[in-house]
Amino acid sequence: MTDAIKRCSTRETAACCCVDVGTILDNGDRTASYSQVFPHQDHAEAMLSHLTDKARAVESDPCLIESQFHQTPAGIQLACRFTFSCQAETMIFQLGLR
């Protein structure tokens, strides 16, 4: 089993299904996006507040939060982007919303 552990490779090892974290998280995707239409402005603002609280709970350095409200025929559309300092925080944020 001399070649059982391959560093920086997504190839499975002989002992388990292990990969180096650096092959999955390369810090290239640090932004999470959210968009939804709400019936009223106050519902959209409440969701933005909820999402902001979730992002602040995850961040190690300040998360850049950009948001916009748009009037649509169906209601108010909330569109926002959360840019974290690292990809792991982005994933934690996204998984926390499930």
Automatic annotation (TrEMBL):
Quote a single Gene Ontology cellular component term: cytosol
Pfam (any one) = DUF406
Listed InterPro entries: DUF406, UPF0234-like_C
The record's similarity note reads: Belongs to the UPF0381 family.
What NCBIfam families does its record include?
A: DUF406 family protein (TIGR00743)
Under which name does UniProt file this protein?
A: DUF406 family protein
Organism whose genome encodes this protein: Erwinia tasmaniensis (strain DSM 17950 / CFBP 7177 / CIP 109463 / NCPPB 4357 / Et1/99)
